[in-house]
């Protein structure tokens, strides 16, 4: 037994919990705005309820600033639009041209991208110069992200992680939004001798490589090949581009599944399926070119698009099914499916998660990310005629939201700066605070967990109010 879906749950029924979340969210954003000094770096995780920085890479600043923009979107409170605009200008420029990370889709789409989306949707007044500012930032961000490129022996490639050219992270699939937006805005990456490099092509190649090497399909690839399992890191030989082995940085082992990486895959592929659907009309008539010529010019034949979509859907379904089978009945997962002390918890998958257990931490941030991914995947699958599976994924996402938007996960303590409790950052490195009397991390928050709880809430608010369906590339419908 695993996640128990509530088949009758609706976004409208969740509105009382969402309204409470938004009330608390406003308090948390204002508390951090009043107390955080930018000279301290970027807020990452809480310790004893107060946000602190944690040097690794600056990948969470976009979540800090973007949270204010999500708050404005959901409530219309102009204070948060002002915070988001001002902080984007003050803090985010270095992230646009940051050559050293794979996190552009986190930092820049959450800030410049949200502002661009709000203007595109008519949520903020149109201003041509302001729009040009957002679009230039998004174009540069997408190109810089795409330049971080390693080729694979099978003719593909990937955006390599901050570990170096040999390293593909599964979470980078959600940073592909930066390439998608830059391509949508008509941008390309310029290489040696002015070579024009398609951002759409690199997006598809990276997502295909991730689907083939970072996700398992139960086809006996190795002794631990279980359908839907993910590897946090995939290692390649940079001399010839050949795949070597799975690895992990934040999970327990290369042969278990770090559940936040799993959640990134669910959401990343669901969003890219939505994005590819938005390109269908633009790609009509391009099948007259050969695949090689089409890809060189940054467009794709209908056959190419169909193959990519099928692979992405297979990856999304497999990872979603694995998540549903390996989370507790309320939709909350443990931090890793192979964590060494899980056996001490007995039949933990047959009951709701216990964040205060003595043996292994849960990860609410993984649940927030997966919850949105499941709702989006369910909507996508239902829209293509599979109502049964669409309902299965969607109701699972709503069930996760119901769990997260209440005790013991929603933080109501005004002295605690976090919104979503029981998030885990880096268990192997011991970076998570363990309170006196506790044996494992619990009771703390993370910037990404708080941000994605707000994103999930916004998605459901829009639906409950019959507003436009939000996507990173502009509202649909």
Secondary-structure blueprint:
Elements: H1 15-35, E1 45-47, E2 50-52, H2 61-75, H3 78-91, H4 93-96, H5 104-107, H6 109-120, H7 128-146, E3 149-151, E4 157-159, E5 167-169, H8 176-184, E6 189-190, E7 196-197, H9 199-213, E8 233-236, E9 243-247, H10 259-278, H11 291-296, H12 302-325, H13 364-383, H14 387-404, H15 447-464
Antiparallel strand pairs: 1-2, 3-4, 5-8, 6-7, 8-9
Helix pairs in contact: 1-2, 1-15, 2-3, 2-6, 2-15, 6-7, 7-8, 8-9, 9-12, 10-12, 10-13, 12-13, 13-14, 13-15
Count of beta strands: 9
SSE arrangement, N to C: HEEHHHHHHEEEHEEHEEHHHHHH
- Structural domains: how many: 1
Strand order within the widest sheet?
5-8-9
Helix count? 15
Rg for CA atoms: 21 Å
Top CATH class? Mainly Alpha
* pLDDT averaged over residues: 94
CATH topology: Glycosyltransferase
β-sheet strand percentage: 5-15%
Roughly how many Å apart are the termini? 37 Å
Task: Please supply descriptive tags for the structure shown above.
globular; mainly alpha; two-stranded antiparallel ribbon; Glycosyltransferase; 477 residues; three-stranded antiparallel β-sheet
Describe the fold and architecture.
This protein is mainly alpha-helical. The chain has one domain: Glycosyltransferase. The protein contains 15 helices and 9 strands. The strands form 4 sheets. A 3-stranded antiparallel beta sheet has the order 5-8-9, with no helix packed on it. Strands 1-2 form a two-stranded antiparallel sheet. A hairpin with a 5-residue loop joins strand 6 (189-190) and strand 7. The longest helix has 24 residues, at 302-325. The chain starts with 14 loop residues before the first helix and ends in a 13-residue tail after the last helix.
